[in-house]
Amino acid sequence: MPQKRDPIQRVTDGRDLYDVASWEERTPLDRFATRVHGWLAAGSRWTVVALAVLILAAQFLIVGVAAFHNPLLGVYVFFSIVPAAVLVFSVWRMDVTMREPLTMLVGTFVLGFLFAGFASVLNTVLKNVVTVIPVVGMVLFFFVVVGPIEETVKWLAVRLYAYRTERFDAVVDGAVYGAAAGLGFATIENTIYITSQFLSATDSATLQAALGQALQTATLRTFAGPGHVIYTAFSGYYLGLAKFNPENRGPIVVKGLLIAAAIHATYDTVVTYMDPVLSLVFGPSLVANWGTLLFIGFVFVYDGFFLWILYRKLARYRDTYRDLDASGVGDAAETDTEDDAAETDTEADAAETNESDDPIDANESDDPFADPESADESVADDS
């Protein structure tokens, strides 16, 4: 919708309305306020990253040191993320627009890796609060805490970096960067699970037995890891859809996060209760003999189903893009700007209105971690 205007602005006769009903940089104080705004916006993003680094460092002091003393654990971790990495590559290949650069994918991966610490801390703090509820406490924990929190921090890994750059120039890019963030999250999660299992086993078993326990955990994590890629590819796709539909950006983002969180929480719930339910219905021997295979089978069916849905969504985008490109509509849309100037201005006004409502969008620039000095122009526009 068009940008709202003050009553004076609507009936102005051309007189100077500076500091009355309009504003732009004029005085030294105006310029100083613009710079402070830029510093605060850039500083807030760097503060989030710095805090994530500190949390990650604390986690590695607890479990990561084991990998340095036992390089075999690093090998386990590496192979446990191979399927997830292959999945990211597949999503990247399905991008029929300009392929996303490796540097951007690595940056998003690193942020997904770092921000996992936030989810770990919040999950730990809130678990004892939610699980005290009888019967349904653990289910609520997955649907109210784990799913929403983990999907949100992975979403933030895309939102705070790739989303803000010019290379994020198509809806499908959101799925690509979401997959990369999911891979980063899965990598640190697998590392913590595998090394924690190893450290726990060393207290009561030989080194060989402890490594065997770590290998078993790594095997299970190999099948669990791709889920993070799939879930966040969904929320990332809707983030891309939101970027190019600013008038409905909020609801679109929420829809994507709800989908990702619900799929994630359902997975965690089924995996948690699978063994107890099967033992109760069919007897403990079934789980003892076939528990691992049943888990692997479930993961293949569950993640495979949602991977198929994701593939269909990406394929629909790909086919539509190719159809429009072949018919010349895509080229016409890029070149026929003069005839659509009025409509473009209206959309730009709507985008500005929505941008101002989102604090994350303050000081929007091509580089989210740019020096505030280089962001002065965009800050002035936002102000």
Q: In angstroms, what separates the terminal alpha carbons?
A: 20 Å
Poorly predicted segments: 335-383
**What is the overall shape?**
globular
- Counting DSSP H or I runs of 4 or more residues, the number of helices is 13
Number of strands: 0
Give the fraction of residues assigned to helices: over 70%
The helix/strand class is mainly alpha
Computed over alpha carbons, the radius of gyration is 24 Å
Average pLDDT number: 81
| Strand and helix order | HHHHHHHHHHHHH
Strand content: under 5%
Q: Describe the biggest sheet? A: none
Task: Give a structural overview.
By secondary structure, the protein is mostly helical. It contains 13 helices and no strands. Helix 6 crosses helix 7 (171-202). It starts with 6 loop residues before the first helix and ends with a helix.
Which short descriptors sum up this protein?
13 helices; mainly alpha; 0% strand; 78% helix; 383 residues
Quick overview:
This protein is an all-alpha fold and about 375 residues long. The chain contains 13 helices and no strands. Residues about 335-383 have low confidence and may be disordered.
